[in-house]
Amino acid sequence: MLTVDGLRSRYGRIEVLHGIDLHVDSGEIVTVVGANGAGKTTLLRCLSGVQPVTGGSITFRGEPLVPVPAHRRLARGLAQSPEGRQIFTNLTVEENLRLGAFLFTDDRVEKDMDDAFAMFPILRDKRNLAAGGLSGGQQQMLAMARALMGRPSCLLLDEPSMGLAPIIVSQIFEVVRGMKDLGVTVLLVEQNAFGALKIADRGYVMETGRVTMEGPAEELIADPRIREAYLGI
Ligand code: ATP
């Protein structure tokens, strides 16, 4: 579904992605783990089109993605739930969700909203409240639900566990795992390597702008280098 080949990107004169190769097959959950500053967010920003690509290629559903402007990528089936959630705090929960469906005017929007509320019941309870009043975990749920309202075939998730209590993190990861059953392919970027790998099919490890390891998630979890560097075991 998504193939990244030799991807390079830079901020000014400083190159931060030095030729990333990865792929995500239809129906998979793929996790990219790596320390702070490894380039995970930059990779996702290249995929969603808000960060210039200076080399290599991205192919999405058989077509080159780099020439497609960011605002057209959702229509191609690629949605992002960004780092820091970026919800509209002074709009209600429902208004945030409707913005996620801005491409559509059909009756399915109401059904999609019901599906989002079924996935995150707390959002139904708070649908008429300002999103800024939600807890961090609820805001993360809203960011993910809003991205799903765009009916993506592939969802890019940037650090959904960031800053959340462990019990909420488990809930969020369970929901991500459930997206598989909805037919949504997921590329998940996380510093919480253990939680993210546990729900993934495959994983990649990024270090200073390069992929240094890749493989089935259970093999990465069992690898002594990963256990020491990322799992604290
Ligand atoms: P984090 O988990 O902290 O978001 P990350 O793995 O997502 O880390 P990036 O945010 O992609 O890493 O950062 C990769 C490198 O690019 C880092 O060295 C960072 O300092 C640098 N960088 C990120 N954003 C900018 C920017 N706007 N201008 C200049 N350098 C940047």
Per DSSP, the total helix count is 10
Strand order of the largest sheet: 6-7-8-3-9-10
Say which molecules are bound, naming each kind only once: adenosine-5'-triphosphate
Q: Give the fraction of residues assigned to helices.
A: 25-40%
Oligomer: single chain
Coarse structural class: alpha/beta
**Biggest sheet descriptor:** 6 strands, mixed
Number of strands: 10
Span between termini: 34 Å
Shape: globular
Radius of gyration: 17 Å
In percent, how much strand structure appears in the residues?
25-35%
GO molecular function: ATP binding; ATP hydrolysis activity; branched-chain amino acid transmembrane transporter activity
Keywords: Amino-acid transport, ATP-binding, Nucleotide-binding, Transport
Protein name: ABC transporter ATP-binding protein
InterPro entries: AAA+_ATPase, ABC_transporter-like_ATP-bd, ABC_transporter-like_CS, BCAA_Transport_ATP-bd_LivF, P-loop_NTPase
Provide a descriptive summary of the structure in words.
Helices cover 36% and strands 27% of the residues. With 233 residues, it is of the alpha/beta class. It has a domain at 86-151. Strand 1 and strand 2 (14-24) form a beta hairpin. The chain is globular, with a radius of gyration of 17 Å. The model has no long low-confidence stretch (mean pLDDT 93). GO terms for molecular function: ATP binding; ATP hydrolysis activity; branched-chain amino acid transmembrane transporter activity. Belongs to the ABC transporter superfamily.
